[in-house]
Every structure is written in C-alpha cells, then in structure tokens.
Amino acid sequence: MKKSLKGIVLASLISTQVLATPISALAVSTETSETPVAQTTEETIEEAIPSEEKEDTSAATEVPKQEESTEVTIEETDKTEETATSEEKTGSSTSESKEKTTVVASEEKKQALKDLIASAWATLKSGTYWGETTAPLKNALEAATASVNDDKMTDAQLDAAMADISLKLTELKSVEKPELSFVTNLINAINDGTEIIFGQGFLGDKYTEASVNARREQINTALEAGKAVLMELYVNGIEIDSTVALANEAQIVAATNAILEAINGGTGLARTDMLKDVLLEASQLSGSMVPGEYLQDKTNFEVAFEQALNALDNALTNEEVQNAVNALRSAMDNLHLLVVVSAVDENGNLIVDQATTSKIGLYKEAWTVEPPVVEGYEYVSTSVEPMTFAMAASTSALAGTYGDGTNDVTLVYKKTGLAEPLPLTFETNQIMNQPATIGVNNQAKPLDPAKTTLPKTGEQTSAMTGFGIMALAGATLAFFKKRKIKE
Predict the structure, then answer these.
(1) Which of 416, 357, 365 is nearest to 382 (CA)?
(2) Dihedral sign of CA atoms 230, 231, 233, 239 in order
(3) Between β-strands 336-344 and 408-415, what pairing exists: parallel, antiparallel or unpaired?
(4) pLDDT tens column, 396-439
(5) pLDDT (tens digit, 9 = 90+) per residue, 476-485?
(6) 52-83: b or e for each residue (b if 16 or more CB lie within 10 Å)?
(7) 280 closest CA partner among 120, 445, 83
(8) In what helix (H) or strand (E) does residue 339 lie, and over which residues does it extend?
(9) pTM above 0.70, yes or no
(10) How far is CA 363 from each of CA 76, 141, 205, 301, 383, rounded to the nearest angstrom?
C-alpha cells in the first residue's frame, strides 16, 4: 500500500510540476541558480509525506505548497534578472561617465584661456590698482597658467579658470594718479630746447643762427641737467613713478626753469618769423618798374632788403630783428612803382604818348586804366603782362594795385578809315624818363627752408642721446595728455 501510495503521489507531483511551471521559468531558474537542483524527486516526496499516517491529507496539502514554492522561485528569478540588468546598466553608465570626464581640453579652449591671461596681465601693467585687489587676480592668473599647461585639464576646468579671472578683473580698484603737470612742463621744456639746439622740429628754424650759437652752451647745460632729473623718475624705463615725482617736485620745477631761462632769459633768442614774412612779401616786388625820378626809392628798398636778409642769420636779439623789419617795411611803403600803359595799332606801333597813359603810384595803392579815345582809331582789345589785371566798374576799364605783378598794359586799336592818323614824334625812353627794374637777391637764402642741417662735429653723440630722450619724453607726454582727456 505504501509503495502504491508513494507512486501515486510521485506521479501526481511530476504531472503537476511540469504542467504548472513554464518552460522559460525552468530554463531561467536553471541558468541563474548557483546550486544544482535542490533535491531529488524522492527526497521531495519524503519531505512532503513525513509519515505513513498522513496519507491522503498530506498529499492533498503538499501539492498547493509545492505550487506556491514554485511561483516564489519564479518571482525571485525575475527579480534577480532585473537586479542584474540594473547593475549592468549602472555599471555601463558609470563607465561612460568616467570616459566623458576624462576627455582632455580642446586647443581652442586652451588658446582662449591664454588670451585672457595675456589681456589680464596687460590690464595690470597699464594701470595702478590697490594691492588688495591685484593679489587675488595675480593668484588666479598663476593658477590658470598652470592649468593651461596641464594636459589632463578638461574644458570645464578651463572654463572655471576663465570665469575666476573675469571675476577678479571686475573687482580691481584703480588708484587715481596725482596731477603731475610739473613733470609735463619739464618734458615740454626739454623738447623745445632739443629742437632749438639741433635745428629740428617746429622750433628748429624759429630763431636766428647767431642768437642760438650765443646761448648754445647755456642751453645744452640746462638740457643735460633736465634730462638727468627726468630719467630718475622712470620705473623700468617705461613709466614715471608718481611717488618719486612728487617727492622731487622742487627739483623738477628748478630744472624746467633753468631750460626756459636759457632760451628766453634776458632779451631772449632772436625770432625769425616776422622777418621771414616781410622778406617773402618784398621778394615778390622783384621785376617791378620804378620811374626814373624815383630811383632813390628803388635804392633804399634794395638796401633794406639786403639788411633784413642778413639779419635772418646774424641778428642776436629780437630788437635787431624788429629794426630790420621796420626798415624794410618803410622802404616798401615809400616805393613808387610804374605801370606802363601803351596804346598801339594792329602792327604794334605807338599811337598815344605813354606819358599820358602810364600810371605811377605808391606800393599797394590802386590804379585803373580807361582806354583813351584816339582819333581815326577804334579800341579793339587789351593785353597785359602778366595777366593779373581785373575789370573795373566800366566794361572797358582795367584795375589793379601797384606791386601786384602788373607792369605792362597794352591797348590795341585799329584804323576806322574816317581820318588819317597823325605820325607820332616822341621818344619812348625820354618820355618815361629812363624807368628802372627792381632786382633783389631773393635767392641768397631760402625764406622758408626745410632744415636739413646735421649736428656739428663733436655733437653727434649728444644729438643721438637728445633724440632718444625726447622719444621717451614724447611718449610720456602723450600718456599724460591721454590720461587727462579720459579724466
């Protein structure tokens, strides 16, 4: 009986388990389980039927339990699969994240950081800032420099470095530079003195050579002292130290005054600008005609012109220059000039006495010519040498000023046939009383020369030093002017 009951239970269990458990679950359970199948069929049956006394009841109750156990095993198997899959995904995600964070920075990002570092250092050097605001920026720059040279840095890390630098730049606080106008005055004085001594620049031709030579040694001495004072103010040969400048203000002012005294002290250097102006005006009278009765005016004018030309080089004082200017101006104002007016026929023969048609007057006075009425002739046209005349109020009249360059006016007529013209019997040269032409030596010296004179022997080294100093001073002066404009 026991054997038959056992056989029946066994057959029932086998049949129930096979039917109740899906094949896929059995397969998964087999693959995921680390231990072999828990028990043999017999062992399971024996556990299910612990004693002979529990025959039908045990069999009836054990079957559902086995089914419940089977379902739990399947659920646990599914959870195991989900857990494994989740762990696989998590591991994959972590791996990908590690790969992303280990990507090195791009060359574009590195270059951008390098450019920002260079720009920030330039900002520090171009201004004066409080130390408590520059120190954080310098630290950020040093850290960024190390980062940009580290091959393991990422774009994100370089972005953070750039953001830090940008923030520190906004936190910089400027120190207002003190007003250093007394330094600017010294620079201007050195510049003026250097141009005068070496005949260069705006002031290089503003003074007579004789007056500059008379003060050359004094000006040079003052310049050298001023340059030495100026150079002591520079930091690294680039920028003036305002603290040092303020501490030496009295010395700087004294050096400036010494240069200005050498140039302008006493009677000062003899300026040439007024003299050049009057000489240029007078030279334009060359070729003008003077009537014979006023030849002394011509002589006085030419003498005054030569004296003024000589003063352009040799005047020692402004008083001498002014005297030369006044003498030449007076000679010009007293100069009588002639405009020869000739009335001729179509063949060029005179038909009117020139003494009745020509014009005489003082320099810069106005003149007019009205073609005269000539019996037997009709006025045709006018020719003037040079062609600088202007028409007067009437349509046929000509007008100008003495000394404007007009020396000859020719009025051309033609015969009308109504009357035979009478022959002329006068002599032109006698009627005009031997007029003379002004001639001035306006080629003796250029009146507005572009100076090209090089320093004299022994001055070459000093000249080069002077120009080097002035280049530096000029840059400094431009800096001060630019700063003042910004303020």
Answers:
(1) 357
(2) positive
(3) parallel
(4) 568 889 998 888 888 888 888 765 555 555 554 444 556 788 87
(5) 555 444 444 3
(6) eeebeebbeebbeebeeebeebbeebeeeeee
(7) 445
(8) strand 336-344
(9) no
(10) 130, 78, 30, 11, 23
